[in-house]
Amino acid sequence: MRLGLGGEFAEQRAWMVEHQLRRRGIGDERVLEAMGAVPRERFVPERYRRRAYADSALPIGEGQTISQPWIVAAICEALELEGLERVLEIGTGSGYSAAVLARLAGEVITIERVEELARTARELIAEMGIANVEVVVGDGSEGLPERAPFDSIAVHAAAPAPPRQLIDELALGGRLVIPIATDAADMLTVFSRIGESVDPTTGEGLKREVIGPCRFVPLIGAEGFPE
Ligand code: SAH
User: Fold this and answer.
1) Each residue of 159-186: pLDDT tens digit?
2) Tens of pLDDT along 99-140?
3) CA distance 152 to 209
4) Is 77 contained in some domain?
5) If you measure from the C-alpha of residue 149 to the centroid of ligand 1, how many angstroms do you get, rounded to a whole number?
6) Cβ-contact 188, 72 below 8 angstroms
7) What is the pLDDT of residue 1?
8) Which domain holds residue 199?
9) Is residue 106 exposed (0-12), middle (13-18) or buried (19+ Cβ within 10 Å)?
10) Less crowded by CB within 10 Å, the N or C end of the chain?
11) Which residues are catalytic, by number?
12) Total domains in the fold of the chain
């Protein structure tokens, strides 16, 4: 029975990679491989497990969600990872995106503000034998200055503006992928650090590329939205 179910999930996962990701423009083979390898059903609460590979976000408790597969893939692709990077992730949630990033980078440090979610994700990641992910509880809008610089930073919640602190923690050449909230939609945006000195108000030292509109939960914290 268990085997049968596992097989069914593997099939759904392969279908998800082809139909939800590759056909909708995700082209990075490493990202497609990672999305095809991580068992998303393990990160979804029992009662939503049948819908683990649906083309949508799903509730994970504490009023939060596991992101739609396409969003996770789009963020990972935008980071342009090659395999050895140190990545900072903000918004661990279920731990799913951290498990995907773990296959794409050398080391992942992921921050979650809700302690209960962080604990569940940490346990699951350990149980799955993923050794290069560290889950930290805290306000990720301020990053993790004591561990900076990071080659890449991925934010899974929408911010009012790119947090100054996160840009400061980016290595030269590094990429920050973050949804920026506007009146119309959250715009998934990449900020690349192209200069030693950066002025976020003038945009000096930063390159900005918009990937497209999407929907995220709010980033809550010092450089995010108020609670
Ligand atoms: N990447 C997750 C989905 C994250 S949803 C997954 O794959 O399951 C966004 C998460 O960001 C939520 O769990 C929310 O609690 C968290 N969050 C919001 N503001 C935060 C902040 N300032 N620091 C850290 N986590 C934050």
Assistant:
1) 999 999 999 999 999 999 999 999 999 9
2) 999 999 999 999 999 999 999 999 999 999 999 999 999 999
3) 15
4) yes
5) 21
6) no
7) 44
8) 5-214
9) middle
10) N
11) 67
12) 1
